[in-house]
């Protein structure tokens, strides 16, 4: 029953996020813009619409909902976060980085358009995310908006996603970067920071008190770490099942993964422990009963197949 509720909420959030992204990436220019260039707009839409689990918007929206906060502003913050995520995928797929041809079951943005367009699409989505977050339509209180913008900048920047990506690149040539503690740190930055921001932003918008914020922060950290170990495991499993391209390539490029650092069985144990820790973090939560879909999300992250 909890799983069904989680799935139905995830579908609802995906649909409403898609709807808002569709409107934000419509042809109507923002203040200061003249007309939006049609081909470039099409590329931005290609990169952000029509795919993805929308897990980050889900975490943000469900966290705010714990505090009874459910409105268009929350959805805007969630869509902005998804823009950052989509930008990271577009850039990560570029030939200079992972050089992937497929993403979300379709050609990557640089394949469907061209490399220069894909670079600018990423830049455009990154910038637009901050515009959407900082806009008064997201929250009437400028203090809340600044808190969101600052937290998002830190999660996406050198102390978070970009810093993790840099460590990831350097790991290709640095043996010490393949030790478990180093991989754990890299992953907490590269993938964990944005997932953690999702929960943090929900708590900010929900005006959570310090105790609730601390519990949710523990949840966000554990869930982020579980997500990335699960991803490493999925890469290997898809490789085993169908000689998956990416897993082979990760191994070729000497990528730092937790499966390589710990072994497959220990990685699976770690994933399950982290998922359980995320769930346990919400046990102490004052509104425990309402946290059921977030608990399910932590189960889903560890058991997902894609
Ligand atoms: C800005 C170049 C650049 C990179 C930042 C996060 C990141 C580093 C790159 C994204 C590429 C990647 C494969 C990261 C690992 C995390 C991961 C599995 C992301 C995919 O997230 P999902 O499963 O994807 O939530 P969907 O398609 O469901 O949104």
UniProtKB/TrEMBL annotation:
Alphabetized InterPro entries for the sequence: Isoprenoid_synthase_dom_sf (IPR008949), Polyprenyl_synt (IPR000092), Polyprenyl_synt_CS (IPR033749), Prenyl_diphosphate_synthase (IPR053378)
Family matches, as Pfam families: polyprenyl_synt
Swiss-Prot/TrEMBL cofactor(s): Mg(2+)
Keyword line: Isoprene biosynthesis, Magnesium, Metal-binding, Transferase
Domain of life: Bacteria
Keyword presence, Transcription regulation: no
UniProt-listed NCBIfam families: FPPsyn
Family: Belongs to the FPP/GGPP synthase family.
Protein name per its UniProtKB record: Polyprenyl synthetase family protein
Organism: Methylocapsa polymorpha
């Amino acid at each position: 029953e909890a799983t069904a509720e989680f799935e139905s909420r995830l579908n609802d959030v995906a649909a409403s996020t898609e709807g808002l992204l569709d409107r934000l990436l419509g042809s109507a220019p923002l203040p200061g813009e003249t007309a939006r260039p049609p081909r470039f707009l099409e590329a931005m839409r290609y990169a952000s619409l029509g795919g993805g689990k929308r897990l980050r918007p889900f975490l943000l929206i469900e966290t705010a909902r714990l505090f009874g906060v459910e409105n268009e502003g929350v959805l805007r913050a969630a869509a902005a976060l998804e823009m950052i995520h989509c930008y990271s995928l577009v850039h990560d797929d570029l030939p200079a980085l992972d050089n992937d041809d497929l993403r979300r079951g379709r050609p990557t943005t640089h394949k469907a358009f061209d490399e220069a367009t894909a670079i600018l699409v990423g830049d455009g989505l990154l910038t637009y995310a901050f515009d959407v977050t900082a806009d008064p339509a997201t929250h009437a209180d400028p203090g809340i908006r600044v808190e969101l913008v600052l937290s998002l900048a830190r999660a996406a920047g050198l102390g978070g996603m970009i810093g993790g990506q840099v460590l990831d690149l350097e790991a290709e040539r640095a043996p010490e970067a393949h030790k478990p503690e180093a991989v754990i740190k890299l992953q907490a930055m590269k993938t964990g920071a944005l997932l953690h921001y999702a929960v943090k932003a929900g708590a900010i918008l929900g005006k959570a008190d310090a105790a609730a914020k601390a519990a949710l922060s523990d949840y966000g950290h554990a869930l982020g770490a579980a997500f990335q170990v699960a991803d490493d495991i999925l890469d290997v499993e898809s490789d085993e099942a169908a000689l998956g391209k990416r897993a082979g390539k990760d191994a070729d490029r000497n990528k730092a993964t937790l499966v390589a650092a710990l072994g497959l069985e220990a990685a699976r144990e770690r994933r399950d422990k982290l998922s359980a820790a995320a769930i346990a973090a919400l046990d102490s939560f004052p509104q425990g009963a309402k946290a059921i879909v977030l608990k399910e999300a932590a189960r889903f992250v560890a058991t997902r197949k894609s």
